[in-house]
Amino acid sequence: MADPLRAGAPETQPLRLANVTKRFGTHTAVEDVSLDLRSGEFLCLLGPSGCGKSTLLRLIAGFETPTSGSIGLDGRDLAGLPPHRRPVNMMFQSYALFPHMSVARNIAYGLKGLGLSRAATAERVEGLLRLVRLDGFADRRPDRLSGGQRQRVALARALAREPRVLLLDEPLGALDRSLREETQAELRALQRRLATSFVVVTHDPSEAMTMADRIGVMDRGRLMQVGAAAELYERPANRFVAGLLGDVNLIEGRLGADAAGPTRTVETGLGPIRASAGAALGPGDAVVVALRPERIRLADESGEGLAGRVIEVTFLGDRIRRLIRMEDGTVLRASGPGGGPDWPVGADVRLGFAPASAVVLPA
Amino acid sequence: MSGTNRIALILGLGFLYAPILVLVAYSFNASALVTVWGGFSTRWYGVLLADRPLIEAAWVSLRVALLASLIATILGTLAALALERHGRFAGRGLFTGLVYAPMVMPEVITGLSLLLLFVGIGLDRGIATIVVAHATFGTGFVAVVAAARLRGLDRALEEAAADLGAGPARVFWSITLPLLAPALGAGFLLAFTLSLDDLVIASFVSGPGSTTLPMRLYSQVRLGVNPEINAASTLLIGAVSLLVLTASWLTGRGTGEGGKDDGKEAGKAGGTGHAPA
Asked: In this predicted model, what pLDDT tens digit does every residue of A194-228 receive, in sequence order?
């Protein structure tokens, strides 16, 4: 048996969401979300609880009906198709293992009606158990399993029907921390091997950055930005995205009058700052400059740059973080590897950064 | 447990069960006089077994209880599913009230209204009418127990089944019903018990040839209490206790995650359930 779980011929866009909106009464859970999932892609939907990411997953699975917009799979509109007729499968946050069935029967549940012989079903179940390293657990009841084992049964069960797209709702949410990190890598390796598209909902930015090919950041029902982790980190679309992925300094100001170009001048309390502008913004617009702490270079008082004084130094092992009070009272965070020049608390320093590493965002 | 609590408990239990204990003890009385102890004997159980009208009444009761609780279980399950699985349909509140009303309705009212109904539609009174009457209030008890269990069931279980390709019918038969089964068993036994010891409603809606055991016992007591009645009552108490214990064991038996909590909830519902019994 080669790999019975490998998905069919790859297509460019298994899943396409177009202007999907979902309202519950007056509450808008998902607002105008458009998203194309690539074949074999690992996509994370990242956002705080209540941002609409789980609702989006339920819309794709068919448990909710969009108020407007469309969801298509391999070019076919899924509208009106009930959950049991959709070629997608979901792994639930609670795992939702059937408590009255053995592990094997849980996994085989979705195989009924696929026209498999008894032997083929048994073989498939065995293959899935091996895949999630649960050989020998076939006859256990779910309540006799550990949390990590239950998670793997849920995964095997969701994979049994070889879905075009696998939806995972907080798949690692119930695991403890050390197990979670181990499982992240496992899940990623499994997804690569099966070449099935995964859509994973998570509220943990580091989890999304560890696993995903692309991350879709959601806030209050809207999809704010979709892109690779590095892209979201370096070129966030707005301050929410900037703040979600890692630490960031946000410096408020107004856009200067210089012509639109790759870098523009922002008038701030620290004086004029040159930063790169992505968004369409006009002169005089209120903006914030997003600047990652590790992109700030420190220099001696005699050097060039913005003047400030170190007010706190924190040793974090792999790096050292300094809080620096600027002349107008703004406090910025700067971090860098240890071993460099030592600027203790009270030292007067100069701050510099490349304009390309500071991003102008709408205020 | 403090001393005061212990005394309160003993007094409470004594108040509830002392009369029953006396009855049970006197059922083993060798003397034919109810109030005089004449030594231990099981002779009244022998007399009981030879009492044809009493045995016949017991059979009527058993048949009525079985049929009525079967009907009540089916209807109660449907009512619980409607209440818990079909969202906020129009008239849901009213429906809830209507399902639960027979449980709190004075039995005299229930009995009288059913009698008027049966007379009105020209239905001959007999075993069938008692079955209908008992199914009426049994349905409410089954619905309460089943609804509590349904509320405690993770909706994701049914959704997961649907997600794995199961249509609504397969979801119901392979997931919802098996997980509901302990509650339905408990509901069935409660309905059975209530039917078995109902006197008031049965008296209203029974006809000739359909005398239930409690009716038979009651009419005999009016002629005078004899130890045979004590023996019959003891057997009835034994049967009912066994059923109620089984019912509460069934509701308390959790299935998988979260099962314990909703078991408790269902147990509470069961508690209010057999209070009138």
From this structure: 889 999 999 999 999 999 999 999 999 999 999 99
Of A61, A57, A62, A4, give the one whose Cα is nearest residue A30: A57
Do the chains contact at A89 and B164, CB–CB below 8 Å?
Answer: yes
Q: CB-hemisphere CA count at 13 Å for A114?
A: 19
Nearest CA in chain A to B162: A84
Annotated domain spans of chain B: 1-41, 51-274
User: How many Cβ atoms sit within 10 Å of the Cβ of residue A357?
Assistant: 16
Residue A3 lies in a domain: no
Question: Looking at this predicted complex, what is its ipTM?
Answer: 0.84
Quick check: A84 and B256 CB within 8 A?
no
pLDDT at B5: 86
Residue B197 confidence (pLDDT):
84
Task: Indicate whether A9 belongs to any domain.
Answer: no
Please, what is the Cα angle at B168 between B165 and B171, to 5 degrees?
70
Nearest CA in chain B to A162: B164
- Would you call A86 helix, strand, or coil by DSSP? coil
Residue that finishes a domain, picked among A192, A220, A239:
A239
Q: For residue B52, count CB atoms less than 10 angstroms from its CB and return exposed for 0-12, middle for 13-18, buried for 19 or more.
A: exposed
Q: What is the pLDDT of residue A260?
A: 67
Residues of chain B neighbouring A161 (CB-CB closer than 8 A): 164-165
**Max CA pair span of chain A:** 80
Shared domain for A224 and A263, answered yes or no, is: no
Report pTM: 0.79
Q: Which residues of B touch A92 (CB under 8 A)?
A: 156, 159-160
Residue where a domain stops, chosen among A189, A204, A239:
A239
Which pLDDT belongs to residue A56? 95
Query: How far is the C-alpha of B24 from the C-alpha of B230, rounded, in Å?
Result: 7
Query: Scanning every residue of chain B, which has its alpha carbon at the shortest distance from the alpha carbon of A109?
Result: B164
List of chain A residues with pLDDT < 70: 1-12, 259-260, 278-279
pLDDT of residue A3: 45
Residues of B in contact with A85 (CB under 8 A): 165
- How many domains, in total, are found in chain A? 2
Distance from CA of A65 to the nearest CA of B (A): 14
C-alpha B9 chain-centroid distance: 26
Q: Supply the CATH number for residue A306's domain.
A: 2.40.50.140
Partner residue facing A89 (CB), from B163, B166, B175: B163
The CATH superfamily of B51-274 is MetI-like (1.10.3720.10)
Domain span at A357 = 247-362
Identify which of A90, A114, A143 has the shortest CB distance to residue B256. Answer: A143
Q: Residue B95: exposed, middle, or buried by beta-carbon count in 10 A (0-12, 13-18, 19+)?
A: middle
Interface with chain B: mutation pick from A58, A78, A84, highest number of B CBs within 10 Å: A84
Amino acid in position A61: A
> What would the two tokens of residue A272 be?
């004029």
pLDDT digits (tens, 9 = 90+) for B173-189: 999 999 999 899 889 98
